[in-house]
Fold each of these.
Amino acid sequence: MEVEVSEHIQRTGVWKPIWSSSRSRWLQACPRRYILQYVAGRGGRVALDRPKRWLWKQGRWAPPRELMSRAVRDTLRKWMFEAHARVLWTLPTARKALENEFSQALEVQNMEMMKLQRRLQSSKSIHRPLSESMKKEILKQGELVLRRAYNHPLLGELLKCGFHGEWQPLDPFTTTRTATGTAYLTPDIIIKGPQRWVLIRISTNAWKVEPDDVGVIESAGMLLWAINEPTLPVKTEEYEIARISHTEKGWRTWRIPAQQRILEDVRVLIKTDLNAARQLMIKAGPEIDIDVVPLSEKDWRCRTCGYRFNCPGGSDLQGAKIQQMASEKAMRSAIA
Ligand code: SF4
């Protein structure tokens, strides 16, 4: 894996970090995963060069329920764009779209795991395709989330083309250049309310309605996007930020009026994270020596990490940390 990483960096030259809330969390939770996916695998979504593409795809590995959550999010996004263009989808149309998204995601993941198995030349099977009965069960849960969205007062109105105000679904995968750095900040939906603009993030899989403290600051990233948009107001008090998330109890809304303080907080968060990412790169060196990059804090993170099959943390995190500390100590003694 180390050879693939350094090869990639030599070919692509300078690396500039991009901020997103998930990258921010991985940077804290497992710096090694951050480097593997966002540095070595950067651009792998569309790249043809193999190490980059493999690393990106390996990092995208997810348990079937997480694949379903992504399929629901993608289906809802397509549905919103169609509704905005006044194309009315019925619930069965949305269900069919969801089934296609999920089946495709499973198929791609199965294929990638077979390729990874060949590359690792491992005799032990690293992947078991999902049984038909399990697939049906997970699909049923995804359909329930869609049905609940259809019956939700706001989401339902938007999806049924029944909303009469000004609104716009957006692509959250577009980046924003800010004075602090480049970041993924675009909301999923913006609505012009009677008093304020509402910037909405849709989350298809949340533990609870209210985001944690860091989550509140991350949500303020939407505000940074809005004030950077030439067609939108620049004053913070003209916005509300909201998260509509699907929890065990159904779709729930959290919303707060935007404040200057959280705008400052998100600027600081982005700046701090981008600096931490640069420091990590300096630590890894120009050849990206992945062995010196810190491993995950907690071993439960490794259980659902796509790199666990060839990262030493995946089989024995504590052992791998002891080994890493011993190597660093030996290196320091050699230099002294
Ligand atoms: S297996 Fe664990 S230590 Fe290795 S990259 Fe994944 S989360 Fe990090």
Amino acid sequence: MGSACHQRRGYALLPGLEALIRRHGLDERLKLQGAFCLDNCQNGCSLKFKDRIFSGLNERNLTEIFEREILPLCQSL
Ligand code: FES
């Protein structure tokens, strides 16, 4: 995690991400992995999945963004 994401409490998203992965039965197929800065600091906390960067993540919108944007991409895992 880069310092900008850390300052924006990106670490606080990890338990939520882990819970979402478990809730949707993806824990055998999807692995969380730390990364350095994604060069997207100006857009808020970011994560990368399948070469796509998701930005502006926080504890309030994580579930919505995960289920709307990331979950459909998991169908082919
Ligand atoms: S620190 Fe997260 S995108 Fe730069």
